[in-house]
Amino acid sequence: MGSGLLTSVLDLLGVFANGLLGGAVARSKGMDLFGFGALGLISGLGGGIIRDVLLQHGTPVALVHPAYILTALAGAGVAFVIRIEHQAWDRLFLLVDAAAISLWATAGALITLAAGLGWLPAVLLGTITATGGGITRDVILTRVPAVFTEGPLYATVAMFVAAIQVAFAKTLGAQDATGTTVAILAGITLRLIAYRRGWRLPRGLDWQPGRRVARGASRPESEDHL
Amino acid sequence: MGSGLLTSVLDLLGVFANGLLGGAVARSKGMDLFGFGALGLISGLGGGIIRDVLLQHGTPVALVHPAYILTALAGAGVAFVIRIEHQAWDRLFLLVDAAAISLWATAGALITLAAGLGWLPAVLLGTITATGGGITRDVILTRVPAVFTEGPLYATVAMFVAAIQVAFAKTLGAQDATGTTVAILAGITLRLIAYRRGWRLPRGLDWQPGRRVARGASRPESEDHL
Amino acid sequence: MGSGLLTSVLDLLGVFANGLLGGAVARSKGMDLFGFGALGLISGLGGGIIRDVLLQHGTPVALVHPAYILTALAGAGVAFVIRIEHQAWDRLFLLVDAAAISLWATAGALITLAAGLGWLPAVLLGTITATGGGITRDVILTRVPAVFTEGPLYATVAMFVAAIQVAFAKTLGAQDATGTTVAILAGITLRLIAYRRGWRLPRGLDWQPGRRVARGASRPESEDHL
Question: In whole angstroms, what is the distance from residue C56 CA to residue B205 CA?
């Protein structure tokens, strides 16, 4: 009960924060009111909708329960009215967003397991639930999705959280709330540390079978293969 | 009967006009025949397909009834053969397109209500039905979707039409054709007036709590937040 | 049996090759490990997933059978570790990819027919199965999809293969393996010849009713209509 309510509040807080973020991006692109609403909905609800469309187990939850649409639009509406200052909300947003992606990753993983799929799709769809909205928003804005290229661990946190959740669900059962709690706390912690310390994933390695000596030292940076 | 036939004719006319538009865009991008076909299909059928995929109530109508694919391809094919002049068809296209987005918005709203969803998703999916094809086409062409940023009311018209349709359906019942007629006529009228007068939605407001005095006058245009 | 095994091996080889290609593209864009994985999955599995989502006949096969996800990730992982040289694998990739798009086109067409749809959607979804992953990858990288604009016949090969498969299935029945064999061999042959000879589809024609004389010779290249 208590945990169900906490989950719902966190979930909608995450939708609101990401709706706000979508609206703020719409502002930076000079969009009109419709653009604010569209980006708010995509940022706040996109990940869960993509997961539900991929699972094909009925109309996406985000469309069925009006609270989701209204909350995402409310976030975008606030961003429409108020020009939000970085300094004023960076820290708060960081925390709410870390909690939201962690929660969404656990929810996506559990829903996938409940649909009868294995651990690998569960980790994948948990990650997509947490990151799909932001990726779709970036693609619509014709930017290469930020989570593929830059910045401190983000999608990795979601994948890590989903993996913890799946491991707990496979051992203690999907009903047990311990795994969700542990996974979310671990996700928030990892995200905050990664953000503060600038932890990043490695980019492509350069191992070339049989050519290491010949080319190793003098390879120009800009040389693109494929 | 008569109204069913009129609806079908309008629907396919809209598919044809948007297939033609997709083909014209393909031409402006120097695409090959396959690109013409692909953009014609996306422009003409994308909105309805997105709606049906989101609703998850069976294979999208646009894939089941061959008339849809053929009509969209026919539009793209005409755009492939003939270099269409602005002057020759601007007015005609404006009218057909205004009728098509209005019809699609009512159809999308009614289908969503029939799937058991509430008024809010019905308005949303009505709007997506009318605008989703154009948005997808723009994203594939790596343009920020035009309906988010510029031009006289377009997506707003679709939303307005869907809302009228939903209001009528909730009061007179979904079978009653009055609401559809009123909504479509209102949509065409609003679209034509908005186009002629250049009505637009507002962009983001600039209210900043506690900072209005300090920054109001001198804020540079290019300053992006977030 | 034997043909079923061959089909599975070809299918997964295609997934691996396209996962590798996705990873190579991720490298050329300076993405991190997560980007490699994401582009590998999208390139290797995107077409089949889009087909299954459009058909709405259950969770996409690529998510249900772990071999698909693992194979696509393995391809991306190889591209992450090894900087692949053009010369070393161009020919091999060309052949594997030609076989893969041909196989995917036949599979997509047969699955669509099995879902009860007609020949036209079967050809369309066969083509989408073969090309959807690459198109999605290009869109996410904010490039206009290569198959719409340039290069030797590719999507056309897929469409051609799907059409042959549908024609055989409609005459000999969907169980008969002759059509699949003929279609795949024809697809590989056409693709290799088109690649070697640089066969392309035509771009838009310039027929303008009533204006041919007046403008034919002096039309500037950059003049965009619409």
Answer: 42
Q: Which residue, C8, C190, C196, is CA-closest to C107?
A: C8
CB B162 within 8 A of CB B118: no
Confidence of residue B144 (pLDDT cuts 50, 70, 90): confident
Q: Which residue type sits at B87? A: Q
Mean pLDDT, residues C188-194 taken together: 93
CA distance C155 to C169: 21
User: How many Å apart are CA C109 and CA B24, to the nearest integer?
Assistant: 29
Residue of chain B whose Cα is closest to the Cα of A23: B204
For residue C97, give the nearest of C151, C166, C36 by alpha carbon: C151
CA distance linking residue C206 with residue B194, whole number of Å: 33
The two tokens of residue C138 are: 């290009």
Residue-wise pLDDT for A172-192, tens only, equals 887 778 899 999 999 999 999
Residues 153 through 172 of chain B touching chain A, CB cutoff 8 Å: 155-156, 159
Interacting residues of C164 by C-beta distance below 8 A, sequence separation 6+: C179, C182, C183, C186, C187
Cα separation, C153 vs A132, in Å, equals 33
Phi and psi angles of residue B203, each rounded to the nearest 5 degrees, phi first: -90, -175
Q: CA B90 to CA A74: how far, in whole Å?
A: 38
Tokens of C193: 């010849």
**Chain B: nearest CA to C60, how far in angstroms?**
13
Q: Cβ of B216 under 8 Å from any chain A Cβ? A: no
> Which pTM value belongs to this model?
0.87
Report yes or no: A94 and A153 within 8 Å, Cβ to Cβ.
no
**Residue A15, CA distances (Å) to A100, A106, B125, C29, C92 in order:** 8, 15, 19, 30, 47
> Exposure of B1 by Cβ count < 10 A (0-12 exposed, 13-18 middle, 19+ buried)?
exposed
Average pLDDT, chain B: 84
Close Cβ partners of B183 (under 8 Å, ≥ 6 residues apart): B102, B105, B106, B161, B162, B164, B165, B168
End-to-end CA distance of chain A: 54
The DSSP call for residue C176 is -
Asked if residues B204 and A26 have their Cβ atoms less than 8 Å apart, the reply is yes
- Put simply, whether A87 touches B (Cβ < 8 Å) is no
Query: Whole-angstrom Cα distance, residue A181 to residue B162?
Result: 42
Of B139, B200, B211, the CB nearest to A32: B200
Half-sphere exposure of A74 (CA within 13 A, CB side): 12
Of B105, B65, B139, nearest to C136 by C-alpha is: B139
**A92 — contact with chain B (CB < 8 Å)?**
no
ipTM of the complex: 0.84
Amino acid code (one letter) for B162: A
pLDDT tens, B146-162?
A: 888 777 888 999 999 99
